[in-house]
Amino acid sequence: MSKHPRPANRNGEIDLSIDFCGVSAPNPFWLASGPPTNSEYQVRRAFEAGWGGVVWKTLNHDPIVNVSSRYGAIDYDGQKVVGLNNIELITDRSLEDNLREIRNIKRDFPKHAVFVSLMVESKRETWHDIVKRTEDAGADGLELNFGCPHGMSERGMGSAVGQVPEYTRMITEWVKEAAHTPVMVKLTPNVTDIAAIGRAAVEGGADAISLINTINSIMGVDLDTLNPRPHVHGLGSHGGYCGPAVKPVALHMVSQIASDPKIRVPISGIGGIQAWPDAVEHMLLGATSVQVCTAVMHYGFRIVDGFIAGMTQWMRDKGFASCKDFVGASVNRIRSWSELDLNYKVVANIDQDRCINCGVCYIACEDGCHQSIKREQVPEREFAKRHKDDGRTFVSGTRQYTHGAGNGYVNVYTVNEDTCVGCNMCSLVCPVDQCITMKEVDTGRPVMSWEQYQKLLAAGKVEPIQPPQHA
Amino acid sequence: MPGNNRKPSLQMLRENFADLHPPFDDVAAREAASRCLYCFDAPCTRACPTHIDIPGFIRQILHRDTVGAARTILNFNIFGGSCARVCPTAVLCEGACVENTHLKSAVPIGLLQRYACDTAHETSMGFFKPGAPTGKRVAVVGAGPAGLTCAHELRKCGHDVVVFEARNTGGGLNTLGIAAYKITTDFALTEVERIRRMGIDLRFKQPIDGARLAKLLGEYNAVFLAVGLGRTAPLGVPGEDLDGVWESLDFIFQTHEKPLSKCKVGRNVVVIGGGNTAIDAANVAVRLGAEHVTVAYRRDRASMPAFRHEYELAVSSGVEFCWLSRPVRIIGRSGKVTGMRMQRVKLDGSGRTASFRAVPDSAFTLPCDMVVKALGQQPLDDLLAAVPKLKLTKNNRVIIDPATGATSAPGLFAGGDCQKDAYEEVVNAVESGKIAARGIHQYLSDS
User: Fold this and answer.
1) Which among A55, B20, B45, B275 could disulfide-bond with A33, CB atoms 3.0 to 4.6 Å apart, if both were Cys?
2) A323 catalytic per annotation
3) CB-neighbour burial class of residue A144 (10 A; exposed 0-12, middle 13-18, buried 19+)
4) How many interchain CB pairs under 8 A, A with B?
């Protein structure tokens, strides 16, 4: 797909402020309901740092009791916390303390968005009561926590509600009976059809939807003790998974909600947002605001500076003046597989000037994909001649050496375009920026989706597409 | 002479001979390991003379199987811990690393190998077991890296092995001949011990002459000759018998054979030569407390065979270089060296084949109280000449079949520095020991 065609807005004013179902905020970067929004102290620090809004950690009439320990993380080959999970519950502080602090915050930060997450037992009067008390404290809006997958669900709350469309609709209705501020329903991803739950929320009167809550997970097992991670005195429990690794799941679900014709309410995107590009992706797929938690738990509130600066520059480059110029811009580009063009073709191309001859693309293609990368053992001397003056060779003592050489040769890799299916894998594993690119090939054939193909085939107007011959 | 005043303190000597690059801890090792791209048909592995599966062992470190990493390394190279310290990695595995092209900095393979071997050191002592007895007996002459590697591989195959070593310690130049700031004597000996535990009869103070070698050929099913080389070549100038004239290896040996504070070093040292041993000797002299160390070499810098990284270490250590100069005579007073008389030369032609022409009236003197000769070692002519039917090159290097290590004499195999195509590194000696062990095993299986 070609680049977005708008002219750059190099010197124009960039407005990051948003209107989220009637609630305004200086920017779309909010903090999700969770440990960072547990107290006035933290929310104050967050707003001072530059966050545009918060969803206050989930309230209940009676504070719960938590366990120690609570979080587990996945590190990947040296990168810390690519995934995080928790078995922490909703607020463990008294409702009175929370409401007093919310009141203080709204007094001092009237222009910031303060939604308050709620989760109470499934009784109409109980919901009515907490809605009234929360709004009295000055909340700009409410978020119904129908998503928390651990602990509370076993007590009939959280995802126990969000996994059943009828419950979701019913409790949303109860809340709407009492609420005067916007009601946002937070969805759990631990369902087979997220849109069905989203539609139920809207039918119940939801003014907005936020998603995703955390994903059911066991983080791992300690190979020394055989305890699960995290563990509480040797035992573990399934917890909610979040962090960078969950973003693709979140983006899929956000786009499903955004593209459903029966759900036409603002979306607050949550899941794997570490930095501004993640936030922009959520917004392109339909989110008006985004909510961050894991990244702040990892690095602190200060990261918002990078969100603001990064998105502002991106908007400037792309010619966007305000967020609404691009929110949802890519929603329409997510389609059913059957609508994709079968005659579109790309093939991989390896830039020999950039290639470092590691062979990672080769073995990925050879063993996992479509056997379309050729390996040639080029004599070291010949290779050095080809790469004169580009730093591939060095002299030590009286001999010349070549990076990438051994046993007298360098492996040189090229793509066999005749058999390359354009799967992308080589370009994904290549460690060098811009070394393997996928280039479009003009097949000379018109756009033809699978749906069209089926019709043309039935009408005898096209020949069947032949299976690849090289495998 | 101010005498003992200029002697560096024990503390300073220890610091001078400490690790050039401190070893990794667990975190640093995994961090470094995470940089490895896990290349296919990896250049590092191809560039390693022993073909260690480097991406494989690095991945084992990354995934916390450090013992497994050590097993991988030692399986290819039983001197893996030593090679991690003494290999010229900059021109071998790390020189081949594609990260040089990508990020202009190689994965620190040597340090990772050292980390694995050191971390798993205790366990690794029991990694390998002798094979089922075959009843065949092999004599190995020389307990250097080539001989001991061959012995180890043969024990894996179940052959009985007796190793005859002229010195009173094992490991050859790996133990004694490499500057002590690269490898400690103790560590080198632990790698010898790992090999000895395979059930090898390792006999010290057993110099083998031509007659004994002939006898061994009759008593054993096969003999592996890994005697290395002999004395350092003489300068061929007057004054070589003066007190204060050293052979480079003897000079380096002392850093392993006695406490650093007892090692002899001049105040002004001149090293003659341009190879890695010359540079090693210069680096040792500086570290032992010499005030001025000059390497005098008859060719120019571009023609110097010493590795660039070794040269750069010497320069950064304060060693001075005197190019295009050859020794004329060693000057002495009362039997002791006082100076090195040199003469400038011009090169006719370029590179290693250029010939020398003396520059008239260019003689000069480098005042010194120690001269270290580092012109390379000479072959053990007498021993080699005594073996019937043993084909040698013109300069008395043993000619072998590079695929098997077999010499022209039946039952006699050779490897290490005494053979024709030897490279001087420990890792090359190890590989030639492996090749010969395979050749001997095949020979014994066929006979």
Assistant:
1) A55
2) no
3) buried
4) 95
Which DSSP symbol is given to A325? G
- The residue whose two tokens read 């749906």 is A451
Chain segment A403-418, per-residue pLDDT in tens: 999 999 999 999 999 9
Contact A53, A113 (CB under 8 A): yes
Q: What is the pTM of this model?
A: 0.93
State the DSSP code for A298: H
Interface check for B376 against chain A (CB to CB < 8 A): the answer is no
B:21-40 residues touching chain A, CB 8 A cutoff:
30-31, 33-34, 37-40
Q: Are A362 and A355 in contact (CB under 8 A)?
A: no
SS3 call for B144? coil
Q: What is the pLDDT of residues B129-160, one digit of tens each?
A: 999 999 999 999 999 999 999 999 999 999 99
Q: A409 pairs with which residues across the strands?
A: A379, A406
pLDDT one-digit tens code per residue, A113-165: 999 999 999 999 999 999 999 999 999 999 999 988 777 888 888 888 999 99
**Alpha-carbon span B54 to B73, nearest angstrom:** 8
Quickly list DSSP for B219-259.
Answer: HSSEEEE-----SBPP--STTTTSBTEEEHHHHHHHHHHS-
Nearest CA in chain B to A376: B41
Phi, psi torsion values for B225, nearest 5 degrees: -95, 110
Which chain B residue lies closest to A361 (C-alpha atoms)? B40
Give the model's confidence band at A399: pLDDT under 50 very low, under 70 low, under 90 confident, else very high: very high
Choose among B41, B98, B304: nearest Cβ to A356. Answer: B98
How large is the angle between the packed helices B276-288 and B308-316, nearest 10 degrees?
A: 20
> What ipTM is given for this predicted complex?
0.93
Contact A397 B304 (CB under 8 A): yes
What's phi and psi for B166, nearest 5 deg?
A: -70, -35
